[in-house]
Every structure is written in C-alpha cells, then in structure tokens.
Write a structure and sequence with these properties.
The complex is a heterodimer of chains A (about 400) and B (about 220). Chain A has about 400 residues and is of the alpha/beta class. Chain A has 14 helices and 18 strands. Chain A has a nine-stranded mixed β-sheet with strand order 2-3-1-4-5-6-9-10-11, sandwiched between helices. A seven-stranded mixed β-sheet of chain A has the order 16-15-14-17-13-12-18, sandwiched between helices. The chains are: A alpha/beta (about 400), B alpha/beta (about 220).
Chain lengths: ~400, ~220
Amino acid sequence: MRAKIAKSCVQLVNRVSKAAGRGAGTVIGGRVGLALDPQLLAKLSRGRQVVLVSGTNGKTTTTALVCAGLGRAAVTNNTGANMPAGHVAALSAASSQHDVAVLEVDEAWLPKVVSDVGPVVLVLLNLSRDQLDRVSEVRQIALKWRESFRSLPNSTVVIANADDPLVVWAAHTAPNVRWVATAHQWNLDAASCPECTSPLTFDAGSWSCRCGFARPEVTASLSDEGIVVGSSHYDLALQLPGSFNRVNAVLAVTALDELGVDPGDAVARLEKVTDVAGRFSERIWRSHRMRLSLAKNPAGFAALLATVTATDSFIAIGINDRVADGRDPSWLYDVPFELLRGKTVYCFGDRALDLATRLDLAGVSFVLDDTEWPTADDVLVIANYTAFRDVLEGSTAR
Amino acid sequence: MKIALLYPELLGTYGDGGNVLALVERSVRRGIEASVSEVHHGDEVPEADLYVLGGGEDGPQRMAADLLRASSFASRVSDGARVLAICAGLQILGTSFCVEGDDEYQGLGMVECVTRRGSSRSVGNLGTEVHGDRLVGFENHGGVTELGADLRPLGRVLHGRGNDGSVDGFVTDSIWATYAHGPVLALNPWFCDEIIAVLANRELDELATVADELYRRRCDVVFA
C-alpha cells in the first residue's frame, strides 16, 4: 500500500514538475517517492527482469542498444537520470506490461541499486578516471563494486569487459560472469595491478601480472568484422561511429543473448540505431550542419579523437566545469590532443582558456573568438556533459 | 636540460604530464634544449637535472615510495639534481605518510615532514601566495602535512587547504613541492619559468602565450 501511494506520488510530482516547466520531471518525483518509501526501488523492480548497465563511459549508449536490440518495449531511464531517483521515476511511469527494465546506473550508486533490484543481467563496461573531485579515486569505485558483488546470487549474470583490468578485478567476486573480449584501448588507469600494484603486462591482445592476476577466458568477443557470441560469428555494421561503439555493441548483444534474444536478430536491430539521446546526432547549430558527440573524460575523448582525425569538417570543442562536469579540468592533460596537430580547434565553454592552453602545449592551433568561426562549413562538435547539453538544446534537428 | 618523469603509471592521476609538457614547451620556445625521459617500474633512475613526481592513489603511492627508496634517486638529488613534487609526490619525500586508512608508511625522509590523514578530503581550488606572486591550482587529497621547523613552505594559503590550511608545500635548494595540481606549471607560467631559469641557470626572455590569459582568469576566480 505504501509503495502504491509512493508510486502515485512519483507520477503526480513528475507531471506537476513538467507542467511547471521545471526540468524534465524525472528526478524530483523519484526523490519524493523514495522519501515516502525507501524500499520503493526494490518494490517497483519486482516482477520485472532488470538489466543494469554501469561503467565510466558508454552507459547511456549501451543501455539504448540493449533496449533497441530487445525487439519489444522495455522500461528505461533514457533521460540519463542514472541514480535511484531516476530509476524510481522510470519504473513508476512504466506500463505493467513492460516486463523488462534496462537501466543505466551511476558507478558510485551501483552497489546500492544492485542490492535493491536484484538484476538478472549486470553489464560492466569500463572504469577510468572521471570527475575525480567527486569520486576521488577510480580504484575506490572498483573496490566498492568488488565488495558488493560477493553477495550476488548465481542467478545474476554479470557481463564484464575482460580487457579492462579494473573491471575484471571488480567482477572477480561475482559467482556467474561472462567475460567479453573488447580490445579495450584505455589502460592509463590500470598500469599497475589492482591486486598487488606490480606493473601489468599488456601483450598481443591479453594482459597479466606476475602475481597471477590475468585476463580471464572469454565467451564472447569483438573482431574486426563483427562479433562472436559462443561459437557463432555475426557481421556488425553499426551506423554509430567509432570503435568504442562496437565495444558497447558486443556487450549489449551478449546481455541480450542472456535474455534469450537471438544474437543475429539483436545485431540487425542495433545496426538501425543512428543516435542516442543526441549523441552522434546530426543537427543544425549556429547555422552549421553539425555532428555532435559527448566526451567527458580522458578515455572518452581518446576514443572519440581517434575517429575525427580524417574529418573535413571543422572541429569545435566545448569544456564546462559545472558540478555535473567535475570542477577541475586537469584531465585535459590526459587527453591525447596531439592527434589533432595540423588542424584548428574552435574552443568554447566555461573553460575554453584551459582547453586553448592545453592545445597550445600540444602544438595544435586554436581559436577562442566566436566571431572567427568559419561561416559555411560543417562542424564536428565534441563537448563535455553540460556543454553538450547546452549545444543540444541550442541546436535544431536537421 | 634533462627532465625525468618518475613512474607516471603510478604517480600520474591528475594530468601531471602537463607539468613536464609546460617545462619542455616553454624551454624549447626560447631555444633551450629540453628532453624528457619517462621512468617506469623496473627502469634504473637515470641522471637528470629535474625529477618530476606527480599525484597518485594510495596503493601506487606506496609502491612508488618503495621503488624510489631502492633507487639512486635520493643520492642523485643530494648530488645536485632537482625535484618537482606534486601531492602524493610531496608526501613521499617526507618522513612518513598515511595510506589506506590510518596506516603510517615510511617516506624517503629527504625532508623533515609528516603527513597524517585529515578528518576530511581537501577538494577544490587552491590559491597561495609564493614570495609575492599568486599561485593557482586545484587540490584533491586527504593529507595534513606538518613541516619540520627548518623546512620552508612554498606558499601561504589564501584559498583552500594546502598542507594544513595555512601554508602549502615546501621548498628547499633542490625541491619544489606543492599540493596544487592543475597542472600547476601549465596554469602558472611564471612558476614554470622560475624553475626553468634555475635549471638553465640564466635569465629568461618574456614568452607570451594563451596561458597568461588563463592565469589571470584563474586568479580572478580563485582569489575572488
């Protein structure tokens, strides 16, 4: 009864919030509901198969890919509200006919959400430095995951990135794991072994430490042409750009395989996805044809920059430093901007000067003055969290 | 000028590579030759004019301290090499520091200072005054560092916490140490140049870059 009232309140508050024009109305209702019934998330999850997706980069995209690949409607928090209030709001608004929920979860909240909802599938993407002013140290997150996964039941299948040593270390305590080979590129945060702090050796698509901690045997993998799940190979031609989206896809398809979706059908559905919540979308901004991408930490930027070096468009990069972005943009020095040498980057956002200084030291030309932007050409925009949101809101569909 | 970046895989959480990059770029643009070697786990510590130690997490910090203890680092510094140490790097040079809770760990003892676990983390902008100049950066650490009576702080804290809320870092004839990352030399061109001038043993020409405007902007924000 209490849960029912709380659920109604979530829906009511969200409708009022939306009508009043205050935000998208997803988080405030959830907060009210959780205040009325702290067990609300657990109660709303009952009777549904819940898939959780977490990690530093790719949460929103992978969550969208799992939903797209499912082939039927599912409950999801596709507004990016990835803490319990957002989960409660999404579940409260959902029809009872939707028997599957696919939720992205903030890394720091994952242990709590896992224990509340009892997921059937838990997808662990990657762990790297991000918003260190908020979560302090990435290894602390890995440690919290590791401790909480000890109490997972055998019925929860963890789908984990076998090429990210921090993810592997965290997932090692879970009783039922499917390891997926992804050719994950970012190892700056796992140069030393999470188990014993000796240096890890990365070699020929594998990695190991002298203490015995090593890459586990995989049951699914990403290849140049496609993906292998079990013993079957599926070609994969995504419309979403970048090798990092192929990594998201192989993890999504493995999760879907676990839910009983045929991997071939799942792949065909994933190939139709063109953008995810504005990410990778083609829009009009400041009268330019624009392709917009989100990158908010070194690993995300590194993956994205690798895809833009051959572009004919001019490149604009926006960096903000609001709470949701992290207040300290020191991480710009961990981004390999040297890849952009020979190009000019148009800088915008709260911390455009920090970006320009970083680019100057990298030997990359930059422009700080908005009035000096090219007038006609297509633009490729990369922006961190709130800068991305500002551009998305200030642009129009093509 | 030979710069050695020590164990970036262990001490490099906060864009610490930016300090080395600023040192090299601001030297080379004035015609001062500068080379960088990265020293990794298992490598000998090479001869260098400047060693750079960055920030790091608890486990890697402990391992870096052990590696440095077993190396020629301290003897090379007493033979005349210099050191820039940031955050965890600063703590390692002292007598002891705390890792993983309140476990005390032995430092290199190159200077007399002790770092204890603070009651809360210091996270935010750090603004100090260093012999009349303003230094800006960002701090993110859990330590409270107490300097021995003979050890001179680098700066006086005007905003943030630094060592203990009143002073930040320390400075000796051979070491500059601060809690400011940021990376501090990219954000504070004058401080970068001060180090280059000492290493090159000469006066430097003016060098105008976009970093000057960034520095003014950050000073306006941090010291507002």
